[in-house]
Structures are given as structure tokens and as C-alpha cells.
Design goal:
Number of strands: 5
Order of helices and strands: EEEEHEH
Strand content: 25-35%
CATH architecture of one domain: Roll
Length: 120
């Protein structure tokens, strides 16, 4: 006589020859990390909103859409592999940006801006 048990909402299953341990998840622990940037409906630029792991670029884009735009917050999404981002360090602020200080011609401090020029 075969014994049956109900488990995981699947109804009665035979208990003989049933695996003792559950199957391992198919999610890979070594999926790359992606950074997600979202452009809002009224925004002009993309803003970093978070990170996620995905198997490839297309999966990262779909997951970013599902996770970060659930309430129709954005109109454009960028996903970038984290290992592709190169950034300056806050501790390098002074030496990294110092070369711009001696180029006064880049700053319009000695120009007269007419009153009828908007957005200046």
C-alpha cells in the first residue's frame, strides 16, 4: 500500500521514492551586479535609484522595470554593469578637480549678461 501526503498545495503525493532535500534554486549567486538609473516623467536627467543582480543585460532591464517603476514613476531606464562604472573618489576631490581652477575663461565672471537673456 502506498502512502500519500499533501504538501506545498499540490494535493496528495506518494511519499515513497520522494526526494528528501528540496531542489537547489536555479538562481546563480555569481550573477553580475547592475546599477539602475531612472528618468522621471518631469526630469531631464537619469538618477541612480538602486542596484540589482541579473544574468544578462536584457534581464537586468526587465527586472529594473519591474522593481523600480511599479507606480509608473519613469519614462526611461538605464542599467549598467557595476564593474563598468569608473568614478572619482571624494578623497581625490582637490587634486582631481584642481586643474580647472586656473582656467578663468571657462567661468563667465567678467561678462555682462543682458537682462533679456533667460536661464543664465
Amino acid at each position: 500500500m502506498t502512502e500519500f501526503t499533501a504538501q506545498d498545495g499540490h494535493g496528495a503525493l506518494p511519499t515513497e521514492n520522494a526526494p528528501v532535500e528540496p531542489k537547489k534554486s536555479t538562481v546563480k549567486a555569481d550573477w553580475p551586479l547592475y546599477e539602475v538609473f531612472l528618468r522621471g516623467k518631469r526630469g531631464l536627467n537619469h538618477v541612480h535609484v538602486g542596484s540589482l543582480h541579473a544574468a544578462d543585460d536584457h534581464m537586468a532591464l526587465r527586472h529594473a522595470r519591474d522593481v523600480y517603476t511599479r507606480r509608473n514613476e519613469g519614462i526611461s531606464i538605464w542599467v549598467v554593469p557595476s564593474n563598468s562604472i569608473v568614478a572619482s573618489s571624494p578623497s581625490e576631490k582637490d587634486p582631481f578637480f584642481a586643474p580647472n581652477g586656473d582656467k578663468v575663461y571657462r567661468h563667465p565672471t567678467f561678462y555682462e549678461i543682458p537682462d533679456n537673456v533667460p536661464h543664465m
